[in-house]
Write a structure and sequence with these properties.
The chain has 775 residues and is α/β, with parallel strands linked by helices. The chain has 27 helices and 25 strands. 34% of the residues lie in helices and 17% in strands. The strands form eight sheets. The protein has a six-stranded mixed beta sheet, with helices on both faces.
C-alpha cells in the first residue's frame, strides 16, 4: 500500500527529519519526554491532514489559507486523519456515554417501536429523550441529577469536638457569629460544646440537626472589621436550615453559600432517568428507559439479548432484531475495551482520559469507514497491565480494516505488537528531534527492577469514612514518611480513593486535628491542565517572572528608557505587543473546529516592543529568557536567586527541555503533573508535607520514570509522604514502600481494598490485581 512520506519536518524541535509511515499498518512513535513525538504526530502529520481537508472544502472557493501549514517540506500519500487523543475537552453536562456512542439513540428507537406496537400509540424516539423539553423531568430538566445535603461534607470528621468545627455549618473563629451561635444553641439544649460529635446521644444529634422548633437567641460576635456586635438570631436544626436554603439553589449567591455541603445525587422526582412520569413508565422486558441508561454496559448487553429473543416471533421481530443487534454490537466493543462497568448515563466530563479514549475507540470500531489514519495518544495510559491486551486487539482490528494507526506510546507490550517503530531523540528539548531508529520494533530486554528494602514509616495516620464514587466508607492506616502506591485494575476506584484521602487530610490539616509536627502541608499533583490559553505559560505558573522582571528593570538601559518591571510583563500594557497582548500568537476561530493559533503578524512571536527588547540581562532579552530551554537558561542565572532554585527543581524532575514561555495548554498531562510537583518542591521545600499524585508515570519512558523515582524517594527520605496511583509494576517496585491494592473488580463491584503490604507481598498475593500478570 506504500507509505506516508514526511520530508524535512522542522516543527518545534524537529531537526528537518524524514520519516516513512507504512499505510495499513500500526506505527508507534516512541522516545523520551520532549523528544518531538507530539511535534511529529500531532503538530505535523495530523495538522497537515486537517489543513488539507479544510482547504479542500467546496465552500473555500477563494482557496485562502484557513490554517497555518506545519513547518515541513512535504508530506506525500497522506490520508484523512482522525485524532482519538486523551485530551478530549467535552464539558457539556448533557453529553453522556450514551450520546457519544449513539447507543442511547438506538435505545430510544427501540422503545418507541416496541411501545407503539404494544399500546397502539404512535410515538417517535424523541418521546424517550431526556433532552426533549416535552419529555424531560420538570424538576431536573433532563439532567437526572439534583443537589442534596451531604452529611459527610457537613460532618467530615465525627471524632472532632463541636467547639472546633465538627459541624462545618458552625465552623468559624472563636468570636465569629457561627461559633457564638453554636455555643448559644448548645447552652439552650444542654449539650457540652466540647463533646465529640460521635459521642452525642441520638436525641442530641436530632436536636442539633433536625430541630424544627426555632430557638430565639442573642449573640455577641466580632465582625470582619474587628468590632463587637450584638444580634438576635433564630436558629433551627442545621439540616432544616440548609434544606430551606436548598429550595433557592437556582440563585447563584445561595448556591455559593451552601455548595460546600452539597453533593450531586439522582433527581428525587425522576430517580435519575431525566424523564417525566409518562415517558419513564413504559417497560421492555422489565426495564424502563431510565433503568436501561443507568444499568452497567455489561448488564445492558445481556438485556439487549433478552429483548431480541423475546420479540423473535412477533410481527416486529425484524426491526427489533436490527436495533438490538446494532445496540449489542456497540456495547460489545465497549465491554471488550474494559469499560463495561460504565453506564450510558455516565457524563462525559467525569470520565478519565483513558476511559474517554477507549469509549471513542469503541465508537470507531463500530464505524464502517476505512482508509483513515487514526492518531492515538498513549492508548495504554490509565490501563492496568491486566487490561492492556484489550486495547492492543482493538487497535489491530482498526488496522485489519484497512486503516493506518499512528500511536504515541511507552508501553512495551503495545510497542512489541506494532508493525513499525519510529524512535525519536536521543534526548528531550534541544537535544532531541532526531530519528534515532526506524523499522520493525526492536525487542526490549526486561530490566530487573532494583529490589530495595522498603523504608520504614516515621508514623501513621488513620483515615476513616473515606467515600468517593464507588469507594464507600473505607478506612486506611496510612504510613507517613514513605511512598504508598494505590493499585488495581482500571475502574477499581484508585483515583476515587486518592481523591477521598486528599479531601480527608485537607480537612484534618485545616481543622488542625493533625499537628504540624506530623503533616505540615497537603499538595495535590494531578494531570489536569495548568492553563488553557496562550496567556498561561510555564513562567506564569511557576511564579518566576516577578524576579526576572525586577532584574530587567534594574539595568541602566531600562532606567534610561524609563522602563519599570511592568514593561517586561506579558499581562499589562506598556511594553508588550498589543496586537497579540504578549502571547506571540493570534487566535483563528472556526465554526466547526477547535480554535487554532498562528504567529502574531506584528511582533512575529517576540511578544514585546523593540524598545523593551533592547534591554538585556545575563546577555539575554526578555524574549530570549522566555524562549531558551530551562536547562540552558539556568547557567546564566545567579545561583543564589529564588528563580534558580525553582528552575533547578524543574531540571531535576526531567523537564529541563521546556522553556519558560511555553504555553501551559501545550503541555502533556504528564508534563503538567511534573511541573506542579516541581513548583511544590521549589516553593515549600520538602518538610513533612503529603503529596498526592495520580498516575505520575503517564507519558514517561523508563529513563524519565527513573528520574521521577529519584525525586519521590528524595521527598520521602526528607520526611514527606507520597501517595500515588500507578499501573507500572517496575516503577512501583523501584519506588513504593507500601502498596494498597483494590483488586480486579471495577465499577459498582470495585471500591474495596483486597490486600496491603510491601510491593513484593502484594505482587505475590493471589487475590491482588497483579496475580498472573508478572513476567
Amino acid at each position: 500500500m506504500g507509505s506516508i512520506q514526511v520530508r524535512g519536518a522542522r516543527e518545534h524541535n524537529l531537526r528537518g527529519i524524514d520519516v516513512d509511515i507504512p499505510l495499513g499498518k500500526l506505527t508507534c512513535v516512541t522516545g523520551v519526554s520532549g523528544c518531538g513525538k507530539s511535534s511529529l504526530v500531532h503538530d505535523t502529520l495530523y495538522a497537515e491532514s486537517q489543513r488539507m481537508f479544510l482547504e479542500g472544502l467546496s465552500g473555500n472557493d477563494m482557496g485562502q489559507q484557513l490554517m497555518k501549514a506545519p513547518d515541513v517540506d512535504s508530506i506525500d500519500n497522506l490520508r484523512p486523519s482522525l485524532n482519538v487523543s486523551q485530551s478530549y475537552y467535552n464539558f457539556n453536562p448533557r453529553s453522556t456515554v450514551g450520546t457519544v456512542t449513539e447507543v442511547s439513540h438506538g435505545l430510544r428507537s427501540l422503545f418507541a417501536l416496541v411501545v407503539s406496537w404494544e399500546t397502539g400509540l404512535r410515538l417517535d424516539d424523541a418521546f424517550f429523550s431526556r433532552n426533549n423539553p416535552s419529555s424531560w423531568c420538570p424538576e431536573c430538566q433532563g439532567t437526572g441529577e439534583g443537589y442534596a445535603i451531604s452529611l459527610e461534607k457537613l460532618i467530615p470528621d465525627p471524632t472532632k469536638r463541636l467547639s472546633v468545627g465538627a459541624i462545618l455549618y458552625y465552623k468559624g473563629g472563636k468570636s465569629s457569629p457561627e461559633r457564638k451561635t453554636l455555643l448559644a444553641v448548645c447552652e439552650r439544649l444542654g449539650i457540652d460544646p466540647d463533646s465529640r460529635f460521635c459521642d452525642l446521644g441520638e436525641a442530641q444529634v436530632d436536636a442539633l440537626l433536625n430541630r424544627t422548633s426555632p430557638l430565639e437567641l442573642s449573640i455577641r460576635y466580632k465582625n470582619p472589621r474587628g468590632s463587637y456586635r450584638q444580634r438576635k438570631v433564630t436558629s433551627r436544626g442545621v439540616l432544616v436550615e440548609l434544606e430551606e436554603k436548598l429550595k433557592d439553589v437556582d440563585t447563584p449567591s445561595t448556591l455559593a453559600s451552601i455548595s460546600k455541603y452539597l453533593e450531586r445525587v439522582p433527581c428525587k422526582t425522576c430517580g435519575g432517568s431525566g424523564l417525566n412520569v409518562e415517558a419513564a413508565a413504559y417497560k421492555i422486558c422489565g426495564m424502563t428507559m431510565g433503568d436501561a441508561e443507568q444499568a452497567s454496559l455489561s448488564e445492558l448487553l445481556k438485556w439487549a439479548g433478552t429483548v431480541h429473543g423475546f420479540y423473535a416471533s412477533s410481527p416486529i421481530a425484524k426491526p427489533v432484531g436490527t436495533l438490538c443487534e446494532r445496540i449489542s454490537r456497540r456495547l460489545e466493543r465497549l465491554v471488550e475495551l474494559k469499560v463495561g462497568y460504565l453506564s450510558l448515563s455516565r457524563k462525559v466530563p467525569t470520565l478519565s482520559g483513558g476511559e474517554s479514549q477507549r469509549v471513542r475507540i469503541a465508537n470507531q470500531l463500530s464505524c464502517s469507514l476505512n482508509g483513515l489514519v487514526y492518531i492515538l495518544d498513549e492508548p495504554c495510559r490509565g490501563l492496568h497491565p491486566r487490561d492492556a491486551e484489550s486495547i492492543i486487539s482493538a487497535t489491530r482490528e482498526l488496522v485489519n480494516r484497512d486503516n493506518t494507526v499512528v500511536a504515541i506510546e511507552h508501553d512495551h507490550r503495545f510497542i512489541s505488537n506494532a508493525d513499525w517503530e519510529i524512535r525519536l531523540g536521543p534526548q528531550g528539548g534541544p537535544n532531541g528531534g532526531s530519528v534515532v531508529s526506524m523499522g520493525a520494533p526492536q525487542k526490549r530486554k526486561d530490566t530487573n527492577p532494583s529490589r530495595r528494602e522498603p523504608a520504614k514509616a516515621r508514623d501513621t495516620l488513620t483515615l476513616d469514612h473515606l467515600s468517593q464514587n464507588n469507594v464507600r466508607d473505607l478506612s486506611i492506616c496510612l504510613p507517613l514518611g514513605v511512598v504508598t502506591a494505590l493499585t488495581g485494575v482500571s475502574g477499581s476506584g484508585k483515583s476515587s480513593l486518592l481523591t477521598a484521602m486528599q479531601h480527608k487530610v485537607d480537612s484534618m490539616v485545616s481543622d488542625k486535628s493533625i499537628p504540624k509536627s506530623k503533616i505540615n502541608g497537603v499538595h495535590l499533583v494531578n494531570q489536569k491542565p495548568i492553563g488553557k490559553t496562550p496567556r498561561s505559560t510555564v513562567a506564569s505558573y511557576l511564579g518566576t517572572m516577578d524576579e526576572i522582571r525586577k532584574a530587567f528593570a534594574e539595568t541602566e538601559d531600562a532606567k534610561s528608557l524609563g522602563l519599570g518591571p511592568s514593561a517586561f510583563s506579558l499581562n499589562v500594557s506598556g511594553g508588550r505587543c498589543e496586537t497579540c497582548q504578549g502571547t506571540g500568537l493570534e487566535k483563528v476561530s472556526y465554526r466547526y473546529l477547535p480554535d487554532t493559533y498562528i504567529e502574531c503578524p506584528e511582533c512575529h512571536g517576540r511578544r514585546f516592543s523593540d524598545e523593551v527588547l533592547s534591554v538585556k540581562v545575563w546577555g539575554l532579552t526578555v524574549t530570549d529568557v522566555l524562549d531558551t530551554p530551562i536547562e540552558e537558561l539556568i547557567e546564566k542565572i545567579p545561583s543564589d536567586s529564588a528563580t534558580y532554585e525553582m528552575l533547578d527543581c524543574v531540571i531535576r524532575i526531567g523537564l529541563g527541555y521546556l522553556t519558560l514561555g511555553q504555553t501551559s495548554m501545550s503541555l502533556s498531562g504528564g508534563e503538567a503533573q511534573r511541573i506542579k510537583l516541581a513548583k511544590a518542591l521549589g516553593k515549600t521545600g520538602v518538610g513533612k508535607g503529603i503529596y498526592f499524585l495520580d498516575e505520575p508515570t503517564s507519558g514517561l519512558e523508563r529513563e524519565d520514570a527513573r528520574l521521577l523515582t529519584q525525586t519521590l524517594l528524595s521527598l520521602s527520605s526528607g520526611g514527606a509522604t507520597v501517595v500515588l496511583t500507578e499501573h507500572d509494576p517496575t516503577f512501583i517496585e523501584e519506588t513504593a514502600d507500601h502498596v494498597i491494592d483494590l483488586g480486579t473488580k471495577a465499577g459498582n463491584d470495585g471500591g474495596s481494598i483486597v490486600c496491603t503490604g510491601s510491593p513484593a507481598k502484594v505482587f505475590d498475593d493471589p487475590q491482588s490485581s497483579w496475580a498472573s500478570t508478572r513476567r
